[in-house]
Amino acid sequence: MRLWIAAVGRLRPGPERALIEDYRARVDRAGKPLALGPLTIAEVEDRKGGGPAAEAALLARAAPEGAVRVALDERGKAQSSPELADAIARWRDEGARDLAFLIGGADGLDPVLRREADARLSFGPMVWPHMLARVMLTEQLYRAVSILAGTPYHRA
């Protein structure tokens, strides 16, 4: 199952990009034997200033047709790392070809996109800058792959 992150905004060179690239490479390497990956990051940008509704249309186009869509949203379900790993494995085992995580811009995700998502994931009640949310998500995807592979990265 291919993994996708569709996110609003362009990530500039710097420490966040370096962390994301490191975890993305780890996901690709460790996920291959588990039929997970590659991890692709699609960045979208609404240059016309249409707000969350315009961003939602761009995010929907960035995610592959038929993908399981997970919206990152503070109102979503907070999961433990093993619970996220189990969900990813379940979607893979149910035959999903693609799993797309959607990260909105500064104003969050459009309510329609949130409702239409197959799942909503929260990193807790705090609001995180979308650039840090990308770092946290790529780390959690690597952690999930590590859990599924039975490697010692995740120490519960």
Structure commentary:
The chain has 156 residues and is α/β, with parallel strands linked by helices. The protein has one domain (2-149): SPOUT methyltransferase, trefoil knot domain (Alpha/beta knot). Helices cover 44% and strands 22% of the residues. It has helices spanning 15-31, 51-62, 81-93, 111-116, 130-149, and strands spanning 2-8, 39-44, 68-78, 98-103, 119-122. Strands 2-1-4-3-5 form a five-stranded parallel sheet. Helix 1 links the parallel strand 1 (2-8) and strand 2. Helix 3 (81-93) packs across helix 5 (130-149). The longest helix has 20 residues, at 130-149. It is globular, with a radius of gyration of 15 Å. It starts with a strand and ends in a 7-residue tail after the last helix. The mean pLDDT is 94.
User: Major beta sheet, specifics?
Assistant: 5 strands, parallel
What is the fold-level CATH name, i.e. the topology? Alpha/beta knot
What is the name of the CATH superfamily? SPOUT methyltransferase, trefoil knot domain
**CA-CA gap between termini:** 26 Å
Question: What is the count of distinct domains?
Answer: 1
Q: Provide the CATH top-level class.
A: Alpha Beta
Percent of residues in beta strands? 15-25%
Averaged pLDDT: 94
CATH architecture grouping:
3-Layer(aba) Sandwich
Side by side, the strands of the main sheet go 2-1-4-3-5
Shape: globular
Helix proportion range: 40-55%
- Helix/strand/pairing class, anyone? alpha/beta
SSE arrangement:
Blueprint lengths: L1 E7 L6 H17 L7 E6 L6 H12 L5 E11 L2 H13 L4 E6 L7 H6 L2 E4 L7 H20 L7
Parallel strand pairs: 1-2, 1-4, 3-4, 3-5
Helix pairs in contact: 1-5, 3-5
